[in-house]
From TrEMBL:
Keyword entries, A-Z: Arsenical resistance
Record keyword Chaperone present: no
Database matches in Pfam families: LMWPc (PF01451)
Domain Phosphotyrosine protein phosphatase I: from-to ranges: 2-134
Gene3D superfamilies named in the record: 3.40.50.2300
Entries under PANTHER family matching the protein: ARSENATE REDUCTASE
Disulfide bond recorded as keyword: no
Annotated protein name in UniProt: Arsenate reductase ArsC
Domain of life: Bacteria
CDD domains: LMWP_ArsC
Naturally occurring in which organism (per UniProt): Spartinivicinus poritis
Length: 140
């Protein structure tokens, strides 16, 4: 199994969604984790849009890299610019990939109602799904 870590700033939305998508789409091929530079807790809108897509992430937990049960990964994928800029050190053989996704809470901050806010999360969720669906091409 290929060990993958999705890393973002707070491990509340983007990295959690990426973890959920890869676990769902490729459970037999990847051992998947997510973490943040900080731990901000799971975002309820992220949980909701993933549930709407048929994926339950409510049992995942927001954690920092230091809290991970394992620290050796074949791939670390940063999903926001801040995490890419301050990414902690990993063993030399770890391969790094960066793909920045828009920040759902930042997008939703200008929403005038809950439906509009959720649509921001749904857009990012779909972007992450499309990224994860191409994981074999990305990890070459």
């Amino acid at each position: 199994m290929i060990r993958v870590l999705f890393l973002c700033t707070g491990n509340s939305c983007r990295s959690q969604m990426a973890e959920g998508w890869l676990r769902h789409l490729r459970p037999d091929d990847f051992e998947v984790y997510s973490a943040g530079i900080e731990a901000h807790g799971l975002n309820p809108y992220a949980i909701q849009v993933m549930a709407e897509a048929g994926i339950d992430i409510h049992q995942q937990r927001s954690q920092t890299v230091d809290q991970l049960p394992e620290s050796h990964f074949e791939y670390v994928i940063t999903v926001c610019d801040h995490a890419n800029d301050v990414c902690p050190a990993f063993p030399a053989k770890t391969k790094f990939i960066h793909h920045s996704f828009e920040d759902p809470p930042k997008l939703a901050a200008k929403a005038s109602n809950k439906e509009e806010a959720l649509s921001c999360y749904q857009k990012v969720c779909e972007d992450i799904k499309q990224f994860v669906q191409k994981i074999d091409l990305i990890l070459i």
